[in-house]
Design brief:
By secondary structure, the protein is of the alpha/beta class. It folds into 2 domains: 160 residues, NAD(P)-binding Rossmann-like Domain (Rossmann fold, 3-Layer(aba) Sandwich); 97 residues, ProC C-terminal domain-like (ProC C-terminal domain-like fold). Strands 3-2-1-4-5-6-7-8 form an 8-stranded mixed β-sheet, with helices on both faces. Strand 1, helix 1 and strand 2 form a beta-alpha-beta unit. Helix 7 crosses helix 12 and helix 8 packs across helix 9. The chain is elongated and about 70 Å long. The two termini are 32 Å apart.
Protein backbone atom coordinates (compact mmCIF):
# COMPACT_ATOMS: atom_id res chain seq x y z
CA UNK A 1 0.00 0.00 0.00
CA UNK A 2 1.33 3.42 -0.99
CA UNK A 3 1.51 5.83 1.92
CA UNK A 4 4.37 8.18 1.00
CA UNK A 5 5.29 9.71 -2.35
CA UNK A 6 8.93 10.49 -3.09
CA UNK A 7 9.73 13.05 -5.79
CA UNK A 8 13.27 13.05 -7.15
CA UNK A 9 13.57 16.20 -9.21
CA UNK A 10 11.46 19.28 -8.45
CA UNK A 11 11.80 21.22 -11.69
CA UNK A 12 8.78 22.45 -13.66
CA UNK A 13 7.15 19.06 -14.07
CA UNK A 14 7.97 17.58 -10.68
CA UNK A 15 6.81 20.66 -8.78
CA UNK A 16 3.67 20.90 -10.95
CA UNK A 17 2.69 17.35 -9.99
CA UNK A 18 3.30 17.95 -6.29
CA UNK A 19 1.47 21.26 -6.16
CA UNK A 20 -1.40 19.78 -8.12
CA UNK A 21 -1.95 16.70 -5.97
CA UNK A 22 -1.74 18.71 -2.74
CA UNK A 23 -4.11 21.42 -3.98
CA UNK A 24 -6.57 18.76 -5.15
CA UNK A 25 -6.21 17.09 -1.72
CA UNK A 26 -5.29 13.75 -3.27
CA UNK A 27 -2.47 13.57 -0.73
CA UNK A 28 -1.38 15.65 2.25
CA UNK A 29 1.87 17.58 2.07
CA UNK A 30 3.22 15.49 4.94
CA UNK A 31 2.92 12.38 2.71
CA UNK A 32 5.50 13.79 0.29
CA UNK A 33 9.28 13.74 0.50
CA UNK A 34 11.21 15.54 -2.23
CA UNK A 35 14.79 16.06 -3.32
CA UNK A 36 16.51 18.15 -5.97
CA UNK A 37 20.18 18.97 -6.46
CA UNK A 38 19.08 22.60 -6.82
CA UNK A 39 18.59 23.76 -3.23
CA UNK A 40 16.84 26.94 -4.36
CA UNK A 41 14.10 24.86 -5.97
CA UNK A 42 13.67 22.89 -2.75
CA UNK A 43 13.33 26.08 -0.70
CA UNK A 44 10.72 27.38 -3.13
CA UNK A 45 8.84 24.08 -2.94
CA UNK A 46 8.89 24.22 0.86
CA UNK A 47 7.41 27.72 0.73
CA UNK A 48 4.73 26.72 -1.79
CA UNK A 49 3.79 23.46 -0.04
CA UNK A 50 4.09 23.92 3.74
CA UNK A 51 4.61 20.59 5.47
CA UNK A 52 6.38 18.83 2.60
CA UNK A 53 9.39 16.79 3.71
CA UNK A 54 12.76 17.53 2.10
CA UNK A 55 15.31 14.77 1.58
CA UNK A 56 19.04 15.31 1.93
CA UNK A 57 19.67 13.15 -1.15
CA UNK A 58 17.83 10.87 -3.57
CA UNK A 59 18.65 7.77 -1.54
CA UNK A 60 16.87 9.18 1.53
CA UNK A 61 13.80 9.87 -0.61
CA UNK A 62 13.84 6.30 -1.91
CA UNK A 63 14.25 4.88 1.59
CA UNK A 64 11.27 6.77 3.02
CA UNK A 65 8.85 6.64 0.08
CA UNK A 66 6.61 3.83 -1.13
CA UNK A 67 6.13 5.36 -4.59
CA UNK A 68 9.18 7.08 -6.10
CA UNK A 69 8.61 9.47 -9.01
CA UNK A 70 11.66 10.06 -11.19
CA UNK A 71 11.22 13.62 -12.48
CA UNK A 72 14.81 14.29 -13.50
CA UNK A 73 16.03 14.97 -17.03
CA UNK A 74 16.31 11.78 -19.11
CA UNK A 75 20.12 11.78 -19.14
CA UNK A 76 20.18 11.61 -15.32
CA UNK A 77 17.70 8.74 -14.87
CA UNK A 78 20.30 5.97 -15.08
CA UNK A 79 22.52 7.65 -12.48
CA UNK A 80 19.61 8.19 -10.09
CA UNK A 81 18.54 4.56 -10.40
CA UNK A 82 22.06 3.39 -9.56
CA UNK A 83 22.10 5.64 -6.49
CA UNK A 84 18.76 4.42 -5.14
CA UNK A 85 19.09 0.78 -6.22
CA UNK A 86 20.21 -0.50 -2.77
CA UNK A 87 17.02 0.73 -1.06
CA UNK A 88 14.19 0.11 -3.54
CA UNK A 89 13.32 -3.52 -2.81
CA UNK A 90 9.51 -3.71 -2.84
CA UNK A 91 9.16 -0.06 -3.92
CA UNK A 92 7.24 1.33 -6.91
CA UNK A 93 9.20 3.45 -9.42
CA UNK A 94 7.32 5.82 -11.74
CA UNK A 95 9.26 7.51 -14.54
CA UNK A 96 8.15 10.62 -16.43
CA UNK A 97 11.35 10.83 -18.48
CA UNK A 98 10.85 11.25 -22.23
CA UNK A 99 12.61 8.56 -24.23
CA UNK A 100 12.89 6.11 -21.34
CA UNK A 101 11.02 3.01 -22.48
CA UNK A 102 9.57 0.29 -20.29
CA UNK A 103 12.28 -2.06 -21.56
CA UNK A 104 14.98 0.40 -20.52
CA UNK A 105 13.44 0.82 -17.09
CA UNK A 106 13.24 -2.96 -16.72
CA UNK A 107 16.90 -3.39 -17.66
CA UNK A 108 18.06 -0.60 -15.33
CA UNK A 109 15.97 -1.91 -12.42
CA UNK A 110 16.71 -5.59 -13.02
CA UNK A 111 17.42 -7.40 -9.77
CA UNK A 112 16.42 -4.42 -7.62
CA UNK A 113 13.09 -5.86 -6.52
CA UNK A 114 11.24 -2.70 -7.58
CA UNK A 115 8.21 -2.46 -9.84
CA UNK A 116 8.07 0.21 -12.53
CA UNK A 117 5.74 2.27 -14.67
CA UNK A 118 6.10 4.86 -17.44
CA UNK A 119 3.94 7.97 -17.76
CA UNK A 120 4.07 11.15 -19.85
CA UNK A 121 2.43 14.19 -18.22
CA UNK A 122 2.57 17.86 -19.20
CA UNK A 123 3.03 21.11 -17.32
CA UNK A 124 -0.61 22.33 -17.33
CA UNK A 125 -0.88 19.89 -14.42
CA UNK A 126 0.14 22.93 -12.36
CA UNK A 127 -3.30 24.46 -12.91
CA UNK A 128 -5.21 21.18 -12.75
CA UNK A 129 -5.51 20.84 -16.53
CA UNK A 130 -2.75 18.38 -17.33
CA UNK A 131 -2.93 15.65 -19.96
CA UNK A 132 -1.13 12.47 -18.95
CA UNK A 133 -0.62 9.23 -20.85
CA UNK A 134 -0.03 6.14 -18.70
CA UNK A 135 1.69 3.18 -20.30
CA UNK A 136 -0.34 -0.02 -20.05
CA UNK A 137 2.89 -2.08 -20.01
CA UNK A 138 3.71 -1.85 -16.31
CA UNK A 139 4.84 -4.17 -13.53
CA UNK A 140 2.83 -2.22 -10.93
CA UNK A 141 0.15 -4.13 -9.05
CA UNK A 142 -3.39 -3.14 -10.00
CA UNK A 143 -3.71 -1.29 -6.69
CA UNK A 144 -0.52 0.68 -7.26
CA UNK A 145 -1.40 1.37 -10.92
CA UNK A 146 -4.79 2.74 -9.87
CA UNK A 147 -3.15 4.86 -7.18
CA UNK A 148 -0.66 6.28 -9.68
CA UNK A 149 -3.47 6.98 -12.13
CA UNK A 150 -5.25 8.83 -9.33
CA UNK A 151 -2.27 11.17 -8.98
CA UNK A 152 -2.62 12.28 -12.56
CA UNK A 153 -6.42 12.23 -12.53
CA UNK A 154 -6.13 14.75 -9.71
CA UNK A 155 -4.22 17.17 -11.93
CA UNK A 156 -6.07 16.83 -15.23
CA UNK A 157 -7.09 14.10 -17.67
CA UNK A 158 -5.47 10.72 -18.25
CA UNK A 159 -5.37 8.11 -20.99
CA UNK A 160 -3.96 4.57 -20.73
CA UNK A 161 -2.11 3.76 -23.96
CA UNK A 162 0.31 1.14 -25.33
CA UNK A 163 3.95 2.13 -25.36
CA UNK A 164 4.20 1.98 -29.15
CA UNK A 165 2.23 5.27 -29.18
CA UNK A 166 4.40 7.12 -26.67
CA UNK A 167 6.68 8.90 -29.14
CA UNK A 168 3.51 10.40 -30.58
CA UNK A 169 2.30 11.22 -27.08
CA UNK A 170 5.49 13.16 -26.40
CA UNK A 171 4.79 15.28 -29.48
CA UNK A 172 1.04 15.60 -28.97
CA UNK A 173 0.62 16.40 -25.29
CA UNK A 174 4.04 16.29 -23.63
CA UNK A 175 5.61 19.06 -25.68
CA UNK A 176 2.59 20.79 -27.20
CA UNK A 177 2.14 23.42 -24.45
CA UNK A 178 5.30 25.04 -25.89
CA UNK A 179 3.68 25.28 -29.34
CA UNK A 180 0.53 26.79 -27.86
CA UNK A 181 2.50 29.35 -25.83
CA UNK A 182 4.32 30.39 -29.00
CA UNK A 183 0.98 30.88 -30.77
CA UNK A 184 -0.41 32.95 -27.87
CA UNK A 185 2.74 35.10 -27.90
CA UNK A 186 2.47 35.63 -31.66
CA UNK A 187 -1.23 36.51 -31.38
CA UNK A 188 -0.46 39.02 -28.63
CA UNK A 189 2.38 40.59 -30.63
CA UNK A 190 0.06 41.05 -33.58
CA UNK A 191 -2.56 42.59 -31.29
CA UNK A 192 0.01 45.03 -29.90
CA UNK A 193 0.84 46.02 -33.48
CA UNK A 194 -2.84 46.84 -33.89
CA UNK A 195 -2.68 49.09 -30.81
CA UNK A 196 -4.08 46.78 -28.12
CA UNK A 197 -2.16 47.12 -24.81
CA UNK A 198 0.07 44.11 -24.21
CA UNK A 199 -1.49 43.22 -20.86
CA UNK A 200 -4.89 42.95 -22.55
CA UNK A 201 -3.44 41.24 -25.61
CA UNK A 202 -2.05 38.29 -23.64
CA UNK A 203 -5.26 37.87 -21.67
CA UNK A 204 -7.49 38.02 -24.74
CA UNK A 205 -5.26 35.66 -26.75
CA UNK A 206 -4.99 33.11 -23.94
CA UNK A 207 -8.72 33.23 -23.18
CA UNK A 208 -9.52 32.72 -26.85
CA UNK A 209 -7.31 29.62 -26.96
CA UNK A 210 -8.85 28.31 -23.73
CA UNK A 211 -12.40 28.90 -24.94
CA UNK A 212 -11.69 27.29 -28.30
CA UNK A 213 -10.23 24.20 -26.62
CA UNK A 214 -13.27 23.93 -24.36
CA UNK A 215 -15.54 24.13 -27.41
CA UNK A 216 -13.78 21.09 -28.89
CA UNK A 217 -13.96 19.14 -25.61
CA UNK A 218 -17.47 20.07 -24.55
CA UNK A 219 -19.30 19.88 -27.88
CA UNK A 220 -17.58 16.90 -29.47
CA UNK A 221 -17.81 18.77 -32.78
CA UNK A 222 -15.04 18.25 -35.31
CA UNK A 223 -12.51 21.13 -35.14
CA UNK A 224 -12.96 21.74 -38.87
CA UNK A 225 -16.70 22.29 -38.37
CA UNK A 226 -16.03 24.70 -35.52
CA UNK A 227 -13.57 26.57 -37.75
CA UNK A 228 -16.14 26.72 -40.55
CA UNK A 229 -18.71 28.19 -38.17
CA UNK A 230 -16.42 31.17 -37.49
CA UNK A 231 -15.67 31.79 -41.17
CA UNK A 232 -18.47 33.94 -42.57
CA UNK A 233 -18.63 34.14 -46.39
CA UNK A 234 -16.46 37.00 -47.60
CA UNK A 235 -15.60 37.89 -44.00
CA UNK A 236 -12.48 38.67 -42.01
CA UNK A 237 -11.80 35.21 -40.56
CA UNK A 238 -11.64 33.43 -43.90
CA UNK A 239 -9.00 35.97 -44.98
CA UNK A 240 -6.90 35.01 -41.95
CA UNK A 241 -7.45 31.29 -42.59
CA UNK A 242 -6.40 31.66 -46.22
CA UNK A 243 -3.19 33.41 -45.13
CA UNK A 244 -2.44 30.68 -42.59
CA UNK A 245 -2.95 28.04 -45.28
CA UNK A 246 -0.71 29.94 -47.67
CA UNK A 247 2.04 30.13 -45.03
CA UNK A 248 1.77 26.41 -44.28
CA UNK A 249 0.40 26.75 -40.73
CA UNK A 250 -0.96 23.21 -40.43
CA UNK A 251 2.01 21.66 -42.20
CA UNK A 252 4.38 23.50 -39.85
CA UNK A 253 2.58 22.09 -36.80
CA UNK A 254 2.60 18.58 -38.23
CA UNK A 255 6.28 18.81 -39.20
CA UNK A 256 7.19 20.15 -35.74
CA UNK A 257 5.39 17.26 -34.05
CA UNK A 258 7.12 14.75 -36.32
CA UNK A 259 10.49 16.27 -35.39
CA UNK A 260 9.54 15.99 -31.72
CA UNK A 261 8.47 12.34 -32.05
CA UNK A 262 11.61 11.53 -34.05
CA UNK A 263 13.75 13.05 -31.32
CA UNK A 264 11.92 10.93 -28.71
CA UNK A 265 12.70 7.80 -30.75
CA UNK A 266 16.31 8.91 -31.10
CA UNK A 267 16.65 9.43 -27.35
CA UNK A 268 15.34 5.92 -26.72
CA UNK A 269 17.82 4.38 -29.14
CA UNK A 270 20.80 6.21 -27.63
CA UNK A 271 20.53 4.57 -24.20
Amino acid sequence: MIRTIGMIGTGNMGSAILRGIVESEYVRASQIIAYDTNRKRLRELEEDIPGVQLGSDCQEVAEKADLIILAVKPLFVSDVIERIRPVIQGKSILSIAAGWTVKMLGESLSGSGATYMRVMPNTPALVGEGMTALCDESTFSKEDFDYAKGIFDAIGKTRILPERLFDGVVALSGSSPAYVYMMIEAMADAAVREGIPRVHAYEMAAQSVLGSALMVLSTGTHPAALKDAVCSPGGTTIEAVEELERKGFRAAIMDAMKACADRSREMSSQK
